[in-house]
Each structure stands twice: as structure tokens, then as C-alpha cells.
Amino acid sequence: MILIDVLLGIFKSVRLNFKYLPLKQAVKFPIIVSRYTKLKKLQGKITINSPIKTGMILIGIGNVGIIDNRYTRSILEFGKTSNIIFNGSARFGNGTKISNSGIISFGNNFCITARSDLVCCEFMKFGDDCLVSWDCLIMDTDFHKVYKGNKVGDVTRKIVLGNNVWVGCRTLILKGSSIPDGSVIGAGSTVGGTFEKENTIILNESAKVKFEDIRWER
Q1: Which of 26, 127, 144, 191 has the fewest CB atoms below 10 angstroms from its CB?
Q2: Is 54 exposed, middle or buried (0-12, 13-18, 19+ CB in 10 A)?
Q3: Residue 76 to residues 59, 82, 115: CA-CA distances in angstroms?
Q4: How far apart are CA 49 and CA 30, in angstroms?
Q5: What pLDDT, in 10s, does the model give residues 159-216?
Q6: Which CATH number describes the domain made up of 2-179?
Q7: Which is nearest to 157 in space by CA: 138, 176, 142?
Q8: 167 within 8 A of 136, measured Cβ to Cβ
Q9: Quick one: DSSP state of residue 113?
Q10: Residues in CB range of 68: below 8 A, 6 or more apart
């Protein structure tokens, strides 16, 4: 089934590679796109800062048992100021949606299993070996201004995830979040702040550190 999705998405793969990459890179087809991916808007730029390999970046491709690939579309929406940087391999499972008008940097061996959303207006950075589960929303903006008296709060603030961070399913990561290396964000958590201690589990809606000195395996 995955092979069929790749073959039927070949024209989308051609479009993405040859639009964004130098010819020498594009002919190797480092980016492979599923037929169930909607290319809504393609502006800005994409940069790959690592040795080029065929299929090193997979979009809309994967298999999670609770998700029906046929009825779960991935969406790419890249505005004029969009800049997406890949520092190695990456996989965005079926149903992944990316809306970007800022800068997103993905470390090597990045993975979204399925059906999660990235909304970037300013800056997002993911370290190496990050794993994002399904039904997560990561966004660096509130979209709307919030006033206190005559003062207005920041609408956007950057998001940074360190190396080897695992984001559990149905997690919400908000603007200004900073997650250190080796962390696990428990399923269903809401995160909106800076955490400093590495190798911790951050759990539940209060997003407090529950356990320290942990280690997780991919």
C-alpha cells in the first residue's frame, strides 16, 4: 500500500523537489510525497544541510493502526517568508499538516508518526532524534493580540525542542516553549513554558516536571 501511495504521488514529489532544490539534489528525489498529501501553497524555500539520499524526507507516508490513510490527508502550506531546513532524514506520517510562514529547523532522524499539526509564524527548532506522536498541535503563535491595559502581549514566540525529545499523543505545545534534551512530554499535556533540566518526564495539563534523570529509547 505504501508503494502504491508513493507511485501515485510521483508528480507531487517531482513538483516539490524541482521547485525547491538545486537540480543536482532534485534528481536524487530526497523528498517523497504520498498521493494523499495536498500541496496547498508552495512558496518560500527548503534547504537540506546533509548528504542527499533518495527518500530521506517522507511526507504523508506511514502506517498507524488507528488511522485510515485514505481519509487522512497531509497538507503543506508554505508562505512567502517560509524557510524549512532539514539537517538529515525526516518522516511526516499520514495526516501531518504544516503551515509555515517562519523558520522551521528539523534535526536528523525527525519523525511525526501521524496526524499532527505544526503552525509556525516565527521560529521552531527540533533537535536530532525527536519523535512526535499522533494528534499533537505545536504552534508558536496565538494569532490574536491580547491586551492588558494599553500593553499588548507577544503574539508569537519561538519554540525549541532539544535532542531526543518524545512528544506523547494529543499534546499541545504553545509559543515560548523550550524542552531540553532527553525529555518526554506525557500524552495529553499542555506545555507553554521553559524547562531546564534534561531527561525529565513532563506530564499532564499543568506541564510540571514529574520525574527526573530518566532515559527513553526510540
Answers
A1: 144
A2: exposed
A3: 9, 11, 13
A4: 12
A5: 999 999 999 999 999 999 999 999 999 999 999 989 999 999 998 766 677 678 877 7
A6: 2.160.10
A7: 176
A8: yes
A9: -
A10: none
C-alpha angle with apex 64: 59 to 68, nearest 5 degrees? 85
Cβ–Cβ < 8 Å for 49, 86: yes
The residue with cell 527518500 is 55
Do the beta carbons of residue 76 and residue 56 sit within 8 Å? no
Q: Band the pLDDT of 149: cuts 50, 70, 90.
A: confident
CA dihedral 60, 84, 55, 170 (to 10 degrees): -40
Question: Which amino acid would we find at residue 107?
Answer: G
Number of H helices, E strands in the chain: 3, 24
Rounded distance between C-alpha atoms, residue 98 and residue 138, angstroms: 10
Residues in the chain: 218
* Whole-number Å distance between alpha carbons of 130 and 137: 15
Question: Which tens digit of pLDDT belongs to each residue from 4-50?
Answer: 888 888 999 999 999 999 999 999 999 999 999 999 999 999 999 99
Cell representation of residue 159: 519554540
